[in-house]
Amino acid sequence: MEKIKKIEIITTSLELGKVLEILDKLGVSGYSVIRNVIGKGGRGMADDDIEMSVLSNVYVMTTCAEKEVHQLVEAIRPILKRFGGICLVSDAEWIIH
Fold it and tell me: How far is it, in rounded angstroms, from Cα 94 to Cα 4?
């Protein structure tokens, strides 16, 4: 098994394009996106109200090599600072790739 870093990002759907653009620029080869993520955080409750879907949250999960984590996190940080959200980094292992 190969050791990697798992990156989980939750941000507003308005910023999804920017997040995916950052991943593409950094050469991240793949990711998963889950739309209409609901939950509660420091800015209150985020729900999936259809009328307000433009303000709904999205979940992005990807992986990268440990040496790429810092660059990815620093590129995502301004988006999270401006619009809220979270970015989690954890250790993981590829079973099959």
Answer: 7
Neighbouring CB atoms inside 10 A of 58's CB total 20
Inter-residue contact 60 to 16 (CB < 8 Å): yes
Which of 35, 29, 1, 26 shows the shortest CA–CA distance to 76? 26
Q: Which two tokens stand for residue 69?
A: 């984590």
Query: What are 42-61's pLDDT values in tens digits?
Result: 767 666 665 555 678 999 99
- The sign of the dihedral angle between the CA atoms of 21, 23, 25, 27 is negative
How are beta strands 57-64 and 31-37 bridged, if at all?
A: antiparallel
Report pTM.
0.86
